[in-house]
Amino acid sequence: MEESMVEAKPEPKQLPAAQQPQGPRRLFGQPLVRNVIVGVVALVLFYLLIGHLSQYRIYQLSQVGPYLIALVGLSVLTGQNGQISLGHGALMAIGAWTLTLMQLHTKSPLWLMLIASALVTMVFGALLGLVAARLRGPYLAGATLALALGLPDITTRYQSVFGGYQGLEVSQPNAPSFLGAAATPTEWLAIIEMICVVVVMILFANLLRSRVGRKFRAVRDDEIATQVSGISVPRTQVLAFALSAAAAGLGGGLFALVSGNVSPGGYTVVLSISLLAAMVIGGTGTLAGAVWGALIMVYVPGWATTLSQKLSLNQSVSANLALAIYGFLLVAIIMVAPVGVQGIVRLVIFKIRNLRKEPG
Amino acid sequence: MRNFWNFLLIGVSNGLVYSLVALGIVLIYRSTRVINFALAAMAMFSTFIAASLIDRNVPYFVAFVAAMVFGFLLGAATERFVMRPVESKSPLNAVIVAIGLLIFLEAMAGVIWGAKLRNFPSHFSLIGLKIGGARLAISNFDLFIVTVVVVLLLALLVLFRYTKLGLMMRASAFAPEVARLLGVRVGRMLTLGWGLACAAGAVAGLLAAPKVFLFPNNMDGVLIFGFTAAIIGGLDSPVGALVGGLLTGVALSFIGGYLGSDLENVGAFVILVVVLMARPEGIFSSMSARRV
């Protein structure tokens, strides 16, 4: 009874914001308003930043976006709801092929294709969530790992639709005229991504502060107690999986745009496992941790390659160094302190604040 | 009809290898409630050790035993130094550590031996046996697989049923507190269990490599098939692992044979989901229900 009421209005928290605006400071205290302001400022700063970067740097930066969005989804699922997924790479693949096939067969505008990537993957994620809701820890890990392994084979099986081993090409959108002739497709794509990142971050930040977010955490911390308080555990888990999948699908769609093609080789088990590694190393369950994780996924392989070239190590070392580092960090972080980079950053900020307080 | 029998025979032969992987998963799961996803990498690493020895003209069977010993030591060291600190914490942590080990070992194999596909010797002929003019799908090597798996299973059966050590291991797995009170070194038994499990994994790697080739990710698929087998078998019974492996092997062989080999991985996912939805405690489990 109580539960159906909860489901009927999922996010009533933000609405009263307009009713009690006592000065700008109070308004800034509202999470939604604050998040939107921070998001817009970040967007403007980003736009100014890419004016000073080379095309290659912008391209590199635009690889962060897709991973970041997928990691936000994975991190919320695992860190906030307690469900593990080794199959988010496969979910990204679903988003990627959705966008590619729409681009190939329809004349949809870009925003529609991106939303479709998220929605199609969300539907698939909800189905997967129905399975996941009955499974726990290691069982779920195994089932999602099987998905990550099996799904790419579908694309080679139905070559005429999905393009087989070579995959399909994806054309990058041209910048609209109001940005001026100076904006290249690379820059435009980076801007689109930053918009998507900001929107996804704001949505998830608010979701986590809302009743839905509290339900996620309640299920993670104690399923029996949650069920006793009248919250449906399976329904919450399916919802978490669906929303997480939507983020992965959007990330996949953007990934297809950035890569310029989709092929099964880009969405192997290694992608799924790297996502898990990046999530843990960045800091599980926090949005800032997802940012660290995405930066690690893009820049660590590059640095590892440069490093092994400088040390004149052979090619097999440079190809595997990044993964070896991920694996080592994964084990070390869980054994020593399972908080990741974001946990360390938080600790440092906390220490600095304490230092300031003590003399005063 | 000949196809049917051939697919069945191939399925049994592959299934026995999946049984070994399932056995490796079960031996660890029932004592420490951890699913060792790193088993794939440990098996692969042990197989590479054997391959390096064979390259240096070491006889096949010596290399075979050396790989088993290496697998045993790797598994035992993993339990003692990596897994023990996280065993008592949330099950998610153990999964992540196992995945970390999987990535690390596969990357290290890539660093040491390269990512190239290579042949691994089978020692016995891979050419199908001839019976009355018709060539069967199974070879001398498949008969070798049957022999090895049967011998290993019998050895484990004797160990667990008829020796004091086996009794102590079972006690440590099912009633650690009581076992400890009675003077069993539970920690040591867990280390031994991990060692045995990973030695079984190493044998699976050695038996799978001639068919799936040898490269750092070569056992990923086999691990999932073995995991499926272990789930069907109920995760806590070695006999279940054997039957689960055979069922998985035969089912996948039919899927691969009649529908196309590229659907085997998808088939494993579907079987896994169906079994987990219908009977999450497995078909041969003695557990009445899975923990919430």
Plain-language structure description:
The complex is a heterodimer of chains A (360) and B (292). Chain A is mostly helical and 360 residues long. Chain A has one domain (2-267). Helices cover 76% and strands 1% of the residues of chain A. Chain A contains 17 helices and two strands. The longest helix of chain A has 27 residues, at 233-259. Chain A is globular and about 55 Å long. Mean pLDDT of chain A is 85; it is low at 1-15. Chain B has a domain at 22-218. In chain B, 74% of the residues lie in helices and 3% in strands. Chain B has eleven helices and two strands; from the N terminus they run ααααββααααααα. The longest helix of chain B is centred in the first third of the chain and has 31 residues, at 2-32. The radius of gyration of chain B is 19 Å and the shape is globular. The chains are: A mainly alpha (360), B mainly alpha (292).
Order of helices and strands of chain B: HHHHEEHHHHHHH
**Low-pLDDT windows of residues of chain B:** 288-292
Question: Any idea what the shape of chain B is?
Answer: globular
- Would you list the SSEs of chain A in sequence order as H and E? HHHHHHHHHEHHHHEHHHH
- Tell me the structural class of chain A: mainly alpha
Quaternary form:
heterodimer
Please describe the biggest sheet of chain B, giving its number of strands, its sense, and whether it closes into a barrel.
2 strands, antiparallel
Number of helical stretches of at least 4 residues of chain B: 11
Radius of gyration of chain A: 21 Å
Largest sheet of chain A: 2 strands, antiparallel
Helix count of chain A? 17
Q: What Rg of chain B do the Cα atoms give?
A: 19 Å
Q: Which structural class should the secondary elements of chain B be placed in?
A: mainly alpha
Estimate the strand proportion of chain B: under 5%
